[in-house]
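Methods — Computational structure assignment.
A single polypeptide chain was analysed. Its primary sequence is given first, followed by the predicted tertiary structure written as C-alpha cells.
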Amino acid sequence: MALVGSWARGSARDDSDVDLVVLSETEDDVGSLSSRPARSSSAAATGPGYRAPTPAASGLEVEVGIATQSWAATDPVDAGTRRVVADGLRALYDPQRLLAELACALR
C-alpha cells in the first residue's frame, strides 16, 4: 500500500483528498475489491487498477486505487505508473519491496 499525490509529496492543502494505491496479488482480488472502474482523471488509478472514492465523516475524501502487483513492474515501468510516482509516492506497507524497487528504478 502506498500514499500518493499531494499528501505523499508534502504539499496537501485543507481541501486535498488522500490517495492510496493498494496492490493485490491477483486480478480476481482487484475485481472483488473494487466497486467501480477508475475515473480517467485519477492519479492513483492511472494504468492498471480501479479507484473507489470513500468520503470520511469529516468530509475528507480518501480514494483507493486497487491494482495488481504488475502496476509496480520496473521492466518496463508503465507510463501511468511513472506519472503517479513522479507526483509523489510514499510506501506505507511494502513487505515484498515492490514499491521501494519501483521508486529506486525511477530515481
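Note: The helical segments are 6-9, 27-33, 79-86, 98-105.
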